[in-house]
Amino acid sequence: MTPMPARIIHLTIDRPWRDVYAFASQPENIPRWAAGLASGLSREGEDWIGDGGPIGKIRVRFAPRNDFGVIDHTVTLETGISFENALRVVPNGDGAEIMFTLIRQPDMDDKAFEKDVAAIHKDLSTLKGILEKS
Known about the structure:
Radius of gyration: 15 Å
Helix content: 25-40%
Structural class: alpha+beta
Order of helices and strands: EHHEEEEEEH
Number of strands: 7
Largest sheet: 7 strands, antiparallel
Strand order of the largest sheet: 1-7-6-5-4-3-2
Distance between the termini: 44 Å
Shape: globular
């Protein structure tokens, strides 16, 4: 398959990167900052199950905890279609950068892609707000 357009959405968070990683990598915390999973996730073996709203039930598998700030995860829809999501936390001075790489899907038009970009930016902004207040 031909590489698709991609966008890296990122924000600087004024907290040590390990604090950002520790919070953001916990599936139990994700509903607090990721609007698409606001209903929560429940554990089922190595996976986490959630209600993806209009896309139905989803299965999420996260990268194992690591020392590199990698929170990559695979989201599988009820239809069996899977999406690989790259989410990273990296050091930036005394703070951190959180970065999500959004890859445009083959059937996605410009408007839908920009809507996804905006939603991810909003989620990362929510995460930033939570972590900079605590």
